[in-house]
Amino acid sequence: MRPDLEQLRDLLEASPGLAKRPAGPAPRELIERAQARLGPLPPSYRWWLGEYGAGWLGGAPIATAAAAEADDAITAAWRSTGTRLCFHAEEDGDTHHFALDRRGTDGEWPVVRRDPFDGAEYPVAENFAGFLAVQAALARGLRDGPNPTIAALWRSTAGVLRDDGLLLYGPHQIQERNETFEVREYAPDWVLVGDDSGGRGLFMRRHGRDRRSVYLLDLGAIGGNLAVDGELLTDDLLGWLAIG
Predict the structure, then answer these.
(1) How far apart are CA 123 and CA 99, in angstroms?
(2) CA dist., res. 85 & res. 131, Å (int)
(3) In whole angstroms, what is the distance from residue 13 CA to residue 129 CA?
(4) The pLDDT value given to residue 21
(5) Which CATH number fits domain 5-138: 3.90.1150.10, 3.40.1580.10, 3.10.310.30, 3.40.30.10?
(6) Tens of pLDDT along 167-225?
(7) Mean pLDDT, to the nearest integer, of 115-132?
(8) How many CB atoms sit inside 10 A of residue 35's CB?
């Protein structure tokens, strides 16, 4: 799924560290130099460079567009190993890489984590925006997400705001929304994952076999029988979003 960059901006503004202020955007000339050496950078990473330019995660900097010899430059020689490009190296040895051989049709590179002990790779996110969303979720104690469907959504984008006003929450929004409407108290088996900007919430099950369906219900009428009281919006959230 293509990242929603405005939702990513909201997440970054609410996540000190992932976007380091007041560093400011990386100079356009340096971004272009990086692309001259590496080829087109993935759109969400290029956007982050142009808007924020610097950030930290786990006590280590996220690679930026800088002079080629700089250690934090994405073009630093040590970062490139075949089809992997390291953009973040944690102090404990874990490293995060762009998988250059798996570029999507949208130009994005998936992100993998490499284990420092056995060298094994583990998928982290579908793109750089998803990587930031995943890290923000972990930092907030949300783990992968409230259910597998939202976890998969966050691996691609930090939430979605559609043209019709329907909003799927990112890691920076979901906790506060659920606390505000006391979802745990009134519907403990459900989670509020978004709203329609008109007073109705989007609800999904936390547990059980059906964790793909979404129900619409007035936010003032939350109860434990949401599958009966609510209106079924879709039985496959990710598929529904993919077709528009």
Answers:
(1) 10
(2) 14
(3) 14
(4) 59
(5) 3.40.1580.10
(6) 999 999 999 999 999 999 999 999 999 999 999 999 999 999 999 999 999 999 999 88
(7) 95
(8) 15
In this prediction the pTM is: 0.95
Distances (CA, A) of 154 to 19, 141, 225: 18, 14, 27
The phi, psi pair for 34, rounded to 5°, reads -60, -40
Query: What residues does each domain of the chain span?
Result: 5-138, 173-242
Single-letter amino acid, residue 159: G
pLDDT computed for residue 23 by the predictor: 66
**pLDDT score at 77:** 94
As a residue count, the chain comes to: 244
* Location of structure tokens 């989670």: 191
133, 190, 103: which is closest to 9 by C-alpha? 133
Predicted pLDDT at 91? 84
CATH 3.40.1580.10 assigned to 173-242: yes
